[in-house]
Design the sequence.
């Protein structure tokens, strides 16, 4: 079985100023993690957040 690769995307709210992050939410169900990386450094490091924690974070942003 082939491992699922992250499908990276930026928010549609991101401006083109270069200060963006990308997330790969497609891994939340299968691995329980949401990787996050700097959009300017696709080959750079990634941070992995527990899917539940990332969901709470996004809900908090929506409430602002």
Sequence:
């Amino acid at each position: 079985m082939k491992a699922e690769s992250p499908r990276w995307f930026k928010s549609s709210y991101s401006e083109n100023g270069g200060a963006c992050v990308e997330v790969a939410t497609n891994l939340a169900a299968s691995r329980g993690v949401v990787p996050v990386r700097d959009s300017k450094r696709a080959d750079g490091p990634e941070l992995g957040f527990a899917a539940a924690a990332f969901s709470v974070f996004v809900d908090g942003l929506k409430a602002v």
Q: What stands out?
A: The radius of gyration is 12 Å. Residues 51-63 form the longest helix (13 residues). The mean pLDDT is 89. The chain is about 25% helix and 20% strand.
